[in-house]
Amino acid sequence: MKAQDILPDDQNFALLGGQPVRKGSVGAFLANVRAIEDNATSDDARRMAWDDLYSLVPALDALGLFEVFELRSPALREAVARHRAVLSPAAAPRA
């Protein structure tokens, strides 16, 4: 399967399980992780990165990203799991 099979070039988003998923969602998530983990990031920029990262969680859940990949950072993994549990207790990982 190729990227254009999921989202054709002329489309900017797809609805997956009723959730709009925009092109660039995974890339934006990764950019926010890098900003959060960069010691040179200011506190304000880090807060904005967290807000942006959390806003992407529903789309990434719709993609099934968290079912396939585990976040390497324990702190990030725990923060995302807590956020997912608030959004949908059924989406939270099982212990």
Compute the number of helices: 5
Residue share in helices?
55-70%
Basic shape: globular
What is the mean predicted local confidence, pLDDT?
91
Question: Low-confidence parts lasting 5 or more residues at pLDDT below 50?
Answer: none
Structure summary, number of beta strands: 2
| Largest sheet, strands/sense/barrel | 2 strands, antiparallel
Return the string of H and E elements.
HEEHHHH
Proportion in β-strands: 5-15%
Domain count: 1
Describe what you observe in this structure.
The protein has 95 residues and is mainly alpha-helical. The chain has one domain. Helix content is 59%, strand content 8%. The chain is built from five helices and two strands; from the N terminus they run αββαααα. It has a two-stranded antiparallel sheet. Strand 1 and strand 2 (19-22) form a beta hairpin. Helix 2 (25-37) packs antiparallel against helix 3 (43-63) and helix 3 (43-63) crosses helix 5 (74-87). The longest helix has 21 residues, at 43-63. The radius of gyration is 14 Å and the shape is globular. It starts with a helix and ends in an 8-residue tail after the last helix. The model has no long low-confidence stretch (mean pLDDT 91).
